[in-house]
Amino acid sequence: QVQLVESGGGLAQPGGSLRLSCAASGRIFNIYDMGWYRQAPGKQRELVATFPSIGTANYADSVKGRFTISRDNAKNTVNLQMNSLEPEDTAVYYCHVIIRHIENYVVDYWGQGTQVTVST
């Protein structure tokens, strides 16, 4: 019904940058929240940043001032610009979207995840 395609993960040095992108496609009427979560080994999945259809973006305290989330509604995409990366940012990052389908029901979807590794 809906596919999420993630890109942009990889290896970065401390202080470096990466940009994640996620594109949604399928039987979409509209998209409410779009965001990114991450999960490090042995830890619970946590919210990184989210961007609702109405309102402003919100961020985890640990990434405020370093990460920027943005949306392109025409392309059904959400991006995460990650600057000043720290080793603690190492995790699998998951795109998450909340979608109202053409058939008029609401479902959330998760991407497969993309690895981000920050290391010297």
Polypeptide structure, described:
By secondary structure, the protein is mostly beta strands. Helices cover 0% and strands 59% of the residues. The protein has no helices and 11 strands. It has strands at 2-7, 10-12, 18-26, 28-39, 46-51, 58-59, 67-72, 77-82, 91-101, 106-110, 114-118. Strands 2, 4, 5, 6, 9, 10 and 11 form a 7-stranded mixed beta sheet that branches. Strands 1-3-8-7 form a 4-stranded antiparallel beta sheet, with no helix packed on it. It is elongated, with a radius of gyration of 14 Å. It starts with a strand and ends with a strand. The model has no long low-confidence stretch (mean pLDDT 96).
The coarse overall form would be elongated
Number of helices, counting only DSSP H or I runs of 4 residues or more: 0
Average of per-residue pLDDT values: 96
Order of helices and strands: EEEEEEEEEEE
Number of strands: 11
What share of the residues lie within helices?
Answer: under 10%
> Main β-sheet: number of strands, strand sense, barrel status?
7 strands, mixed
**Share of residues in strands:** over 45%
Which structural class matches the secondary elements? mainly beta
| Poorly predicted spans | none
Radius of gyration: 14 Å
- First CA to last CA: what distance? 40 Å
